[in-house]
Amino acid sequence: MTLKVCQKQAQVLLLQKRDLVMAKVEETIKTKLEEAFQPTQLVVRNVSHQHAGHAGSPGTGESHFEVELTSASFSGMNKVARQRAVYQILREEMAGPVHALALKTLSPDE
To answer: 2, 17, 47, 90: least surrounded by Cβ within 10 Å?
Structure first.
């Protein structure tokens, strides 16, 4: 094999690995929120591309997320309590790969 072929194969492998890691964080967020809150609606958006190159962005492609979550678990809770509950469930992700998390949390009657 030539050096160019080896370099190209290495690039492909790195991209595949990055894609697997990227999917892992987003899927982990979805899974944890589904298990904890049994939502009637859950939308997780990876918006990391909007923050590429910004201070605090690790450049992993999975550091910034927006979450819309509707759950009966939030009935009777104020906005701060709802967000605390979500952050508690995602504490490992917030301590590691996730730099920013924007939340919209609702109860079904809202």
So the answer is: 2
Region 63-78: what's the mean pLDDT? Answer: 95
**CA–CA distance from 87 to each of 22, 54, 93, 98, 102 (Å)?**
20, 23, 9, 11, 11
Range 3-106 has CATH code 3.50.50.60 = no
Stretch (H or E) spanning 19:
helix 3-37
Show the tokens assigned to 40: 């009637």
For residue 76, give the DSSP letter: T
Other CB atoms within 10 A of residue 89 CB: 16
Q: What is the pTM of this model?
A: 0.73
* Domain edges within the chain: 3-106
Tokens of 70: 């509707």
